[in-house]
Design goal:
With about 325 residues, this protein is α+β, with helices and mostly antiparallel strands. The chain is built from eleven helices and 15 strands. The strands form three sheets. An eight-stranded mixed beta sheet has the order 5-4-3-6-2-1-7-8. Strands 9-10-13-11-12 form a five-stranded mixed beta sheet. Strands 14-15 form a two-stranded antiparallel ribbon. The longest helix has 18 residues, at about 155-175. The radius of gyration is 20 Å and the shape is elongated. Bound molecules: adenosine-5'-diphosphate and magnesium ion (MG). The site of adenosine-5'-diphosphate (ADP) has 22 residues, from α2 and α5.
Length: about 325
């Protein structure tokens, strides 16, 4: 039922950044070596995500957009709500197609031709064989064109783009071995090289000054639920005043974790008074059973069973990193 689909999709797809997140995650899952994201008007007019990953056969492509389908074998941690299950399973492309004009083009390695499918408001309107590079290109146009109530809630193009930028930056930093680029209109925002080193990814995303002055985070003696805390944090002199840029990765997955962000900011507050906010990339190693991902796909907030312990460990690790750097 198209109406039901549209309502359900409106629940799971909140804004351009949520579309981008799902598409980039699919490209990562497909083993891409490069992912190019291009958006127009903050993603409200057009979103394109192109990858050189494993692609889909014509049959799988049809299945992927028309039904709640997933090809992904998930382990037991996923079923128990571990962090690997971020995102909604087998629903993303279907949901996106219900509330936009969706074109997916894909070719498997070795296949002589690719397949292309066009979906408008949940209906397949065209299906054809095309010549295309190996991998997958997904184009999402006119998001919420058929859900005016939701379209009305989109913010300015600049605001929508800043959310898109956060998502793509997060994945670029999490996957330093993938060349990730982001372009808004005809302007490239950043492009990582995909050589696998974190610092050069940070340089591409945040700039040379920030990257050159990052301080490594290397664990903490504080007891707590985390097996390890790693990453890099900015030297306070390169901090920006307006807001913080704290990217959190739990077992390699980029997540939203307000409590971790707060712990990082607190560590800076103790080292120096003031309102200069940090750049940080924080890697947490943790038993998935002690982490909870809110099941509602729009709220990708990760929660820790022992939040106080986590906070002590993250704060301790960042404080020692800053002390080691002579601060
Ligand atoms: P999920 O990712 O949870 O499986 P999606 O709706 O996001 O669900 O995708 C459905 C299926 O389409 C995936 O399981 C995968 O088989 C296929 N797919 C989607 N995007 C890509 C891509 N970029 N490359 C290869 N296969 C893809
Ligand atoms: Mg997916």
């Amino acid at each position: 039922d198209a109406t039901v689909d549209r309502i359900a999709a409106g629940e799971v797809v909140e804004r351009p950044a949520s579309v981008v997140k799902e598409l980039v995650e699919n490209s990562v899952d497909a083993g891409a070596g490069r992912i190019d994201v291009t958006v127009a008007a903050g993603g409200t007019e057009r979103i394109e995500v192109r990858d050189d990953g494993s692609g889909m056969s014509p049959d799988d492509l049809e299945l992927a957009v028309t039904e709640h389908a997933t090809s992904k074998i998930r382990d037991i941690d996923d079923l128990e709500g571990g962090v690997a299950s971020l995102g909604f399973r087998g629903e993303a492309l279907h949901a996106i197609g219900a509330v936009s004009k969706l074109t997916v083009r894909s070719r498997e390695p070795g296949a002589s031709k690719g397949a292309q499918l066009r979906v408008e408001g949940g209906n397949v309107v065209r299906q054809e064989t095309v010549g295309c590079p190996e991998g997958t290109t997904v184009v999402v146009e006119d998001l919420f064109y058929n859900v005016p109530a939701r379209r009305k809630y989109l913010k300015s193009e600049a605001t929508e783009f800043s959310h898109v930028n956060s998502v793509v930056s997060g994945y670029a930093l999490a996957n330093a071995d993938i060349a990730v680029s982001l372009t808004h209109g005809d302007r490239e925002t950043f492009a990582t090289e995909g050589r696998g080193d974190r610092r050069s990814a940070i340089m591409a995303v945040y700039g040379r000054d920030v990257a050159a002055n990052m301080v490594p985070v290397d664990g903490t003696d504080e007891p707590g639920p985390l097996a390890d805390v790693g990453g890099m944090v900015s030297h306070p002199e390169t901090n920006r005043a307006t807001r913080e840029y704290v990217n959190v990765f739990v077992n390699g997955r980029w997540v939203t974790a307000t409590a971790v962000r707060d712990a990082v900011v607190e560590a800076y507050d103790r080292q120096l008074a003031g309102d200069r906010y940090p750049f940080a990339v924080i890697d947490l190693d943790v038993d998935p059973a002690t982490v909870d991902v809110n099941v509602h796909p729009r709220k990708l907030e990760v929660r820790f069973a022992d939040e106080d312990g986590m906070t002590r460990q993250v704060r301790g690790a960042v404080e020692s990193a800053l002390l080691d750097a002579g601060l």
